[in-house]
Amino acid sequence: MSPLLTVENLRVRSGDRLLASLDSLQVDRGECAAIVGESGSGKTTTLNAMLGLTDGLTVSGRIAVGGVDVVGADERALGRIRGSKVALISQSPQDSLNPTMRLGTLLRRVLARHGVRGAEARERTGEALGSVLLDPALLRRYPHQVSGGQAQRFAIATAVALRADVILADEPTSALDVTVQAAVLGLLTRLREDHGIALVFVSHDLAVVSGIADQVVVMRDGRVVESGPAAGVLSRPSAAYTRELLDAVPAIGEGPC
Ligand SMILES: Nc1ncnc2c1ncn2[C@@H]1O[C@H](COP(=O)(O)OP(=O)(O)OP(=O)(O)O)[C@@H](O)[C@H]1O
């Protein structure tokens, strides 16, 4: 079976400046690839390229999501890919939700945009909320009336309701407190196991990455400095930069207090 996500020879440039490059990445059903690196290394640009969100930039190479090519696709094709094939979960989902609409209306509209209406929409909504353990009563609330953790669960439920094959998660837990963070990470892991979702997880937090990723891509200044199976990259890094990132992770129990 072909991987759910394939990237080959990706280059994203702004004029002459290389913002992100990735020679090869394959993420299979149920797998998680993490992209790590310091601020400005090109992580978000890489994710955006996977969604075709590269206005004003020059993109070359190949990205295929669920067998559909993203690079070079027109807006109509991208509209079909986004949501139904690939969904984005951002750092602050509340900011990307229309504040004037209840969550239920937002979800209904997203599903309708992908042709899912009526009984089918209700059934998928119920299933999706169940899979992220969200009380359906929350659908009557507006975005500002839910917590960060609930908003993140809602974003994940939207991806599940759309039956996205690939979830792109851009620092999905960095705005959450530690217990909510653990719950959201556990949820993403369960979705991979139960629904076979492929996950691309962007983070600068190697402690979080070590608990969730099968593969790790380490980026710096728009280039990959090291990549491979998570266990190898995180326990026996070959690049000095990866070692620096790992050295910056406090050991468990080694806190300021
Ligand atoms: N549309 C754009 N046009 C020009 N430059 C851009 C554009 N988008 C991003 N950049 C630049 O590309 C570089 C990589 O940015 P990117 O957001 O991908 O980094 P990042 O690793 O995700 O950082 P962070 O962890 O801070 O989010 C940065 O220098 C940024 O300023």
TrEMBL record:
Pfam families: ABC_tran (PF00005). Coiled coil: none annotated. It is found in: Cell membrane. It comes from Actinoallomurus vinaceus. CDD domains: ABC_NikE_OppD_transporters (cd03257). InterPro entries: AAA+_ATPase, ABC_Ni/Peptide_Import, ABC_transporter-like_ATP-bd, ABC_transporter-like_CS, P-loop_NTPase. It is a peripheral membrane protein. It comes from the Bacteria. This is ABC transporter domain-containing protein. Keywords: ATP-binding, Cell membrane, Membrane, Nucleotide-binding, Transport. The keyword Amino-acid biosynthesis does not apply. PROSITE patterns: ABC_TRANSPORTER_1, ABC_TRANSPORTER_2. Residues 5-246 form the ABC transporter domain. Belongs to the ABC transporter superfamily. The keyword Transport applies.
